[in-house]
Structure formats: C-alpha cells, structure tokens
Amino acid sequence: MIRIAAMADVHFGADAVGTLRPHLTHLAERADLLLIAGDLTRVGDPAEAALLLDELCEVRVPIVAVLGNHDVHGGQVVSIVAALSAAGVHVLEGDAVTLDVNGVCVGVAGAKGFGGGFMGACASDFGEPEMRAFIAHTKERAARLETALRGLDCDRRIALLHYAPVPDTLCGERLELYPFLGSYLLAEAIDRAGADLALHGHAHAGSERGVTAGGVPVRNVAQPVLRRAYALYCFDGARDSVPVDLPSPPDLAGWRYLAHGAAHERSARHS
Amino acid sequence: MADQSSDRDPYLAEHLREALAQDPRVGELGLDVEIVGETVVLRGTLTSTERQAAASDIAHDLMPNHAVRNETAVPDCPEAPQVEHLP
Questions:
Q1: What would the pLDDT profile of A99-143 be if each residue is shown by its tens digit?
Q2: Do A15 and B51 lie within an 8 Å CB cutoff?
Q3: Is 3.30.450 the CATH number for B12-70?
Q4: Is the backbone of residue A17 left (phi > 0), alpha (psi -120 to 50) or beta?
C-alpha cells in the first residue's frame, strides 16, 4: 500500500510559526510521502520558506513540492528552491522524481501550471502579445508536465500542480475567476501521458474532488478546502497507469486567419 | 490615503481587495470586500489571527471614515485526516 499525504496553500510566514508543526506530529505514521501543491510561503520570501522548513523538520518522509503563485511573487524563486532543496525537499518544475515506497516505484511529475480557463470558456493564443504570452506560458508549463509524466518509468504516477487542471475542483469559486485558477491544457497533458492521481491547490473556495475527461482523479488539497492540515490518499500497490487513447492534437501552428473572412488556410509549409 | 466615499468611488472595494492581496501583512488574494453604506465588510479565510488583524488595519487605513466589520475566519485545522482509497 502507498500512503500519500498532500497539502497546498500553507502560505507560511513568521506569524504562523508553531501552528503547523503540531498537526504534522503523526504524519510519518500515516503516510509514506508528503506532496505539497504550491504556495508554501505567504509572499515568496526565502525567510518564510526557512520557517516552513523548521516546521516540517519532524516529518520523516520524503517531501515533494511545486511552487505556487505566492512563492514566485517575491521574485526570489532561486533562493526559495535552493533552501528547500538543501533541506531535502524535491522541488519540481517540469521535471519528475521517483521514489521507492514499500517496494513500489512512485513517480511524481510536477509543474506550477497556470491559468487560461476551461473548455468552452478559455483564453486563446490570439490578439495582443500580452494575451498570447499568457497562454504561451500555460502551454509551455503543460507541455513540460506531459513530457515529465511520459518520462516516468514507474508503478504509480502522480501529477503535482498548483493550478487546477479541471473545473470540478473549483466548484465554490466565482465563475469569473476560473480562467485565473487553472487550465484545461493541464488536464489534457495528464490524460495524454497517463497518471493515477493529479493534485493541485490555489482554489481556496473550491472543492476537493474532481476527475479529468480521461478519468484521472483530481484532488484540490488547498488547506482552506480540506479544513485540515493535509489529506491522505492510498493506493493498493502497483498498477499501470495508461494514457488515455486520444488522437494527436491538431497542429495549429500553420493556420493563418484571413482578416477578410472566416476562412482559414494552411500556410505553405503545411500545404 | 484619503478616504473616499463608496458612493463616489464604485471601484473602492476592488482597490481595497487588491491592497489586501499586495500588503505582505495579509498577502491573500481570495478575500471578499463589500461596502454596505458606511461599513466595509471583509469575508474569506486567513491563516492567522495576525493576518486577520492586519486586514482590519489596512481597511481602516484606506477607508478611515468607514466602520470595518471583519468576518474573515481563521479555520481550525484538525489533525486527524480522513483516508481516501484510490483505484
């Protein structure tokens, strides 16, 4: 059996010292690893990360984390990652780690992810450079997540994100905020590569449980959603997580919009 | 910042919401701000009583002629987690 503890949106700072540690006392008896789905700090100050590490010092299981938007806010990502890594925390961004858990190889692929919205109501790679950059960032993070998942050769695969891959786990949030809380591109990456579980945070007013279109369970482990320090999920040993059998996505890079009409045509290199 | 009546500035609630997100004493994006007459109401969750108090201070600073009703919550985090078995 593999036991996974998961949390997100700790938003740790000096005013929280001593508040988390008591809740983690028995974590190592209940879980084999701890996954943190972003927003470890309040405003991305490396000192906050150091305080959180003090709080986690008695957690005697491997810890894997991705950063969240709060962690990048202070512009000190390198220092935060260095502090966490020096303490033995695996910090992922478009890469993966494998861990031996009771003889089962567990792989975790991680990425912060980003926003953009969900099918039927999402931003497009069109228009102003700023809007295109917004979506390009999401596409790039989703692609890196898919590559990291595909590269895992293990018994169980977990996708660790900060932003949400599905709208299910945003239920409770205002609809207007959805494009800033996640993107369907993350779910598509997970389904194309295959995974047993996807974890995220970021949506404090959302819901815990959801599922991708391909059937991968999604859990929002933001502490305000869980209303406890962490969630616990169990797998019974190894299982092959197979990618969803999806056709290849269309290559839109060569499509050119014709301003005088609604028609599209292939550019020369695709004709 | 000088106080501005919400009657004259319909955007004031959003400016306060942004201030609550950007001020490192709070640093929380998900708070709701509602202005009801001469009272500003804050709702949502924060992770410490210090941040809760800071949210009230920021609201008072930005809107000194309004009363502040801070309805934010600092949820208790019980340790005992439930276990979900996944396929």
A1: 999 899 999 999 999 999 999 888 988 899 999 999 999 999 999
A2: yes
A3: no
A4: beta
